[in-house]
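Final report, closing paragraph on structural work. Over the funding period we assembled a curated collection of sequence-structure pairs, and we close with a single example.
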Amino acid sequence: MLIPKKVKHRKWHKGRGRNKRIASRKTDLAFGTIGLKATTGAWVTSRQIESARRAMTRAVKRGGKIWIRIFPNKPVTSKGSEMPMGKGKGAVDHYVSVVRPGTIMFEMAGVDDELARSALALAAYKLPVKTKIVTKGL
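Its predicted structure, as stored:
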């Protein structure tokens, strides 16, 4: 699973105005010929990214090339069950990637279009965002 080697701050704030803005970066295909674009916003965990990657890799039978354009660098904390109020913030539980609408999450190249579409559709089932498949405008 993807986790950062080192973070500047161990615990982060959640942030204000979640899922209100659209993406300004990673909005166009940069490496591959076909990609999976988010149409809604969400926090995508490192487990979900890995699950989608495995689904795509198995669907194309380890052919072609796959690029993961998102990286989970935001720590999410959780406290144990039945903990009283107070007593500080919980320990870091997992890492997420903040995905805004319009973000390209995965790209593929080197496989035929129909196989790539089916592989990206399988990956989309594993993700908590609504997606669409985009191709390079030739």
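The two ends are 34 Å apart (CA to CA). The chain has a mean pLDDT of 92. We thank the funder for supporting this effort.
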